[in-house]
Amino acid sequence: MKKLSARRRHPLAALVVLLFALAATGGLYAAFAPADEAKADTSAASSQSLAIEEGEKLYATGCSSCHGTGGQGTSDGPTLVGVGAAAVDFQVGTGRMPAQSPGAQAPKKPQVYTQAQIDQLAAYVASLGPGPSIPTEEQYDPAGADSAAGGELFRTNCAQCHNFTGEGGALTNGKYAPSLDGVSDKHIYEAMLTGPQNMPVFPDSVLPEEEKREIIAYVNDVQGEDEKSPGGFKLGGFGPVAEGMFAWTIVLALLIGVAVWVAARTAKARKS
Amino acid sequence: MSTAGDAPKRRGKAPAGERVADWADGRLGIYSLAKANMRKIFPDHWSFMLGEICLYTFIIIILTGVYLTLFFNPSMAEVEYHGAYVPMQGVHMSQAYATTLDISFDVRGGLLVRQIHHWAALMFLVGMFVHMMRVFFTGAFRKPREINWLFGFLLLVLGMFTGFTGYSLPDDLLSGTGVRFMEGAVLSVPVVGTYLAFFLFGGEFPGTEIIPRFFVAHVLLLPGIMLGLVVAHLILVFYHKHTQFAGPGRTEKNVVGMPLLPVYMAKAGGFFFLVFGVISVIAATFTINPIWVLGPYRPDQVSTNAQPDWYMGFSEGLIRAMPAWEMVLPGGYTLNLGVAIPLVIIFPLVLTSIAVYPFIESWITGDKREHHILDRPRNAPTRTAFGAAWISLYFLLLVGGGNDLWATHFHLSINAITWFVRIGFFVVPVVVFIITKRICLGLQRRDREKVLHGRESGIIKRLPHGEFVEVHEPLSQEQLHTLTAHEQYKPLEIGPETDENGVRRKIGPVQKLRARLSRGYYGEGNQVAKPTAEEFKELTSGHSHGH
Amino acid sequence: MSSHTGSHDVPDENLPEGRESTHGEAATRAQNPFADPGLPPHEPRVQDIDERAAKRSERTVALLFTVSILATIGFIASYVIFPIDQYVFIWPLGEISALNFSLGMTLGIALFCIGAGAVHWGRTLMSDHELIGERHPIEADEPTRTQVLADFSQGAKESQLGRRKLIRNTMFGALAVVPLSGVVLLRDLGPLPEDKLRHTAWERGKLLVNQNTDEPLRPEDITVGSLVFAKPEGLEEGTHEFMAEIAKAAVMLVRLEPKDIKDKQELDWSHEGIVAYSRICTHVGCPVTLYEQQTHHVLCPCHQSTFDLADGARVIFGPAGHPLPQLRISVNEDGYLEAQGDFAEPVGPSFWERG
């Protein structure tokens, strides 16, 4: 994760100003924040600061060994300044964080913290620097979204790594794009917003909120509880490799089994 | 035919069926045909039914394919979809893709027929592959069946391309990626590649011509040739009469089994329905190529798991494993060897090596006799080892073609798998060759022991002086015959370099190579001598004293 | 031995002894312990000696045929009863089409039972006496061979083909040339390549349009770590023109830290670290879009060619022969990203004339 820029009052305006400033000064590079603005929390300031306090304690015990005591990052983990609450909610909510062991990438696991604790952690990390906040339900709820349009967007932006129906796929050197099976609408939205690990970010300037909802609607159509597979069992949805394996094993075994029965001699009276 | 004895009585009041047959015989000469074939003998063995799986799936493919053409429109005209499948509403697609969606969602039973067609196609290719291996490992390709082996081989290759064109017809994102791959492969052909690609596609990729042209190849050109080859293949099977395994009463000059009418007719005819039934049940319960989730083809979209159907998988493995190799020749011409070597050279070479094998083996043995008794694979160790090495290479490349799925399912690095395939391409066939040959020789040795000492009965006997021995049961006459029925060649000797007068004999390098290969096949250590009658008699007479 | 030609170049002693020498002669059995004992005597099946067992077989076969009839009726009933869009949950297959499942199962049962009935009939009730068929050598006997060869020479002689060389040569010439008409007719299969593969829809001043929103892109839309797919302005989806042009013009945009860019030309052709690369793989043309934002590697899903976008899209793994072409971009006075021209080299897979 790159270092993120400092605070600003209005997100887009600030970003534009910042970019022009950078261009003008000839590439004095700070960093870029995801275009999505950390929305001001409407809850009471006191409860907010209490959550940040609680989050800081959780952070100190669970996260600081890798991400540094102030979230500035170490050689074992990237900086969390400016990643935003959405990234925390995604990473901890899907169990990827805290990471168990070093590897090509942190896998999905049963989550370690309760949702309340995750919110506190998120509040703390959000206080380190502005970043995308946890989306509200109307942001990610796919009800009424056009899933056909979502399919087009999915094939343009997502299928290359996650496969046609979100079964996941391989990346370089042991990394992989995970399956989207059983991933909640909120987490899909957060992943697009924050770009966890090697996944690219799809900020609202590139993929507007409405289109993210369409993508979620499409994923729900072809993957998960509402999914339909008219032709029968879908063999994992991996395409011709799985079909070929099935043909070579089950179907061939059935046909040979039949052939053995057809060609076998009938039992003789003496032996039976 | 049974009433042939009382021919004079027949004339006046022959039953209707007989009269029809007489009428047909007067015009077609069916009685002479039937005389030779109606009671034709077919030996029973399950592995002899593998070819029938191919024949029957081929018939199923033709039946279902004709049905599909009634609804399919092979056009690349762009339309907006407004059919029954909701997640595609309003999406731009070609007519070909839209009508495939219609077959799946608007034609009742259309989905079933599509799935039967596709599953039967996969099984047609699986069947041909397994059938070919059966013929190979039992030596059924030997004289007089070499030409039929080539017919079968051509059917396999044509089947691969018929499958590829058919898989491309729906113009979905997966098959379109395959067509794009084909375009890149054609472009890599030196000198004429660019022109070939423009003529094939009617211009630049993707154009509007490739699906209609593939359609003609898929429903007319290729199946037409295949149908002719299938008929020729079957005529030759009838003409040569089927091979059989060695056994009591089975010789090179006879064929032992059941007559075509009625037993074989019931079994083979029944087997057609069994195969069709199994594939229908599979098509009812397991989806294949669900094009509706793949989306219409667009050159700027792609999905991971981009693979062809399995029979093209080994070429996919070749192309994935091949390292980059591209050079610009003087004069500004690009030679893309990274694509051309695997597809234009190795791909045909892998296939041809198995196709020409019968001719190589007969050249080595110099055997010009007919062979109708099949070999057990163990009794031809070098041939069996070669076949196993070939299969291992083929399946290694299949693994390479699906390297991304191996990576995700076994938590491996895709780069590591690719390197494994690159190295394995050279190592695995050699290792498999050596191991297979060892196993064959071991099995030959065991057969020899069994013939000479009998079967281990598992009964332990205590001899009077206290020694424990296992009782060996002598084999029956049938078993003794079966286990010693195979032929053993002697290695070819080219003799001394000089003749008796000290003059150097002319021995060409080809003849030397042949002698070396012959030693590799039949020389010392490459086959285990089968027991002779003398050895057997000596041992058995000794045994009878001991008991 | 069936061969009358024999082997000319191999002494016969290399060939193994023919099996004929051990062919089931009772007299040889004493000398040869491995002699062929001949076909074992036929043993009856239960059905051959017990009429009740035969009856049982008959009933089984008839039952199978009856089940097949019922299944066909079931097939027709399913076709009428189930609407095409009705889904049922069947464990463990999932939520599947009721029509596809019922039609396939009934058809499968109907066919399978016919086959099973016929085979059971053939196995248990039809005679299972093994019969022996004689084989005859494929090769013709010597008189036939001589006759055919003589007939052929006579026919050839009568045609005077060998004597009248002029006829022979012109005939072969005519036959060799006539297929050319067919080849010539294939010329109009497609246009000549000319320089079509060298140009794309990009040209100086064309805006880069976000493929998701159809809006022109501004630099600030593209954040570090994001991946954006762009097409040239004026290209509408749903037309043939779109398919033909996007097959060459598709680009992806990513923003890198300028200090991370190792290739000087890449930096020059970028805008504030935003780089635009062709999406069409230089191997065989799949869209290479599996972008790993932390490593800046982009992977092709078809054959795993891997390009380093921070280093001029150099090939770091896989079969692609050269880097992805870069599109030179800048910003126009309205603050939108625009192309500085077409790609400097042909996009996509290499071809003979590429150079």
* Overall spatial form of chain A: elongated
**Global morphology of chain C:** extended
- The CATH architecture designation of the largest domain in chain A is Orthogonal Bundle
Give the strand tally of chain A: 2
Q: Average pLDDT value of chain C? A: 91
- The top level CATH class name of the largest domain in chain A: Mainly Alpha
H-E order of chain C? HHHEEHEHHHEEHEHEEEEEEEE
Beta-strand percent range of chain C: 5-15%
Q: Give the uncertain stretches of chain A in residue-range form.
A: 1-9, 25-43
Number of helical segments of chain C? 9
Q: What report would you give on this structure?
A:
- The complex is a heterotrimer of chains A (272), B (547) and C (355).
- Chain A has helices at residues 11-24, 45-62, 64-67, 84-93, 115-128, 137-140, 147-157, 159-162, 185-194, 209-222, 240-263, and strands at residues 169-170, 176-177.
- By secondary structure, chain A is mainly alpha-helical.
- Chain A has a two-stranded antiparallel ribbon.
- Chain A is elongated.
- With 547 residues, chain B is mainly α.
- Chain B has 3 domains: 2-33, no CATH class; 50-369, Cytochrome Bc1 Complex, Chain C (Up-down Bundle), CATH 1.20.810.10; 388-488 and 529-547, no CATH class.
- Chain B is built from 21 helices and 10 strands.
- Chain B has a two-stranded antiparallel sheet with strand order 1-5.
- In chain B, helix 4 (50-69) crosses helix 11 (260-285) and helix 16 packs antiparallel against helix 18.
- Chain B is globular and about 90 Å long.
- Chain B starts with 6 loop residues before the first helix and ends with a helix.
- With 355 residues, chain C is an alpha+beta fold.
- Chain C is 34% helix and 15% strand.
- Chain C contains 9 helices and 14 strands.
- In chain C, a hairpin with a 5-residue loop joins strand 10 (306-308) and strand 11 (314-317).
- Chain C is extended.
- Chain C starts with 25 loop residues before the first helix and ends in a 16-residue tail after the last strand.
- The model of chain C is unreliable at 1-11 and 19-27 (pLDDT under 50).
- Classes of the chains: A mainly alpha (272), B mainly alpha (547), C alpha+beta (355).
- Chains in contact: A-B, A-C, B-C.
- Strand 5 (254-259) of chain B pairs antiparallel with strand 3 (131-134) of chain C.
